[in-house]
Amino acid sequence: MNSQALSSSSAITRIPATSSTPHHTIIIGVTGSIAAYKAAELVSQLRQRGHRIFVVMTSDSKNFITPLTLQTLSGNPLVENFSDEIPGSSCGHIALADRADLLLIAPATASAIARLAYGFSDDPLSAIALATRAPLLIAPAMNGKMWEHPATCENVERLRSRGVQFIGPSVGLLACGYEGSGRLIESSAIIDCAEKLLTHKVI
User: What is the pLDDT of residue 19?
Assistant: First the structure.
């Protein structure tokens, strides 16, 4: 093999993001749903569109996707616990709350929605939700009976009354074996909704 062919075959090309300058800072919260693995696609696609992504995981979400996966895809440090934060860090939960242009929680379990509705703040994700003044977009994922339960319906309405936006869930085959409402809506729909919120368009 000549030197020119060797140089060509060994070349590695980095695929750039859509934009070299991040458009917005998006905090993606991932909660303990089996659909948590789909957060990888959201993180990857939003980053490719030029947004700066930070991921915040609840402890249960780590049962379904590894922190390393989401940290690698986002290109930024990942937030899991208060104890891991460095005082004054730009990736601390209050710093992220201040920097956020959008807080997107996908998937959001019934438990996560209840915690947000009642203002719990004992983990980084719920604390960011309380502290940020950025729009909040929630993509639920749970068993259909849980989604339709009066307690969940009340919590959703409580959040909507505060200006929180919901997208989904969709109807389909659920991980529990039932078919009905409760499936995490497609990533493309979530991304479209997120970008409309970021540009202040009506959704």
Answer: 45
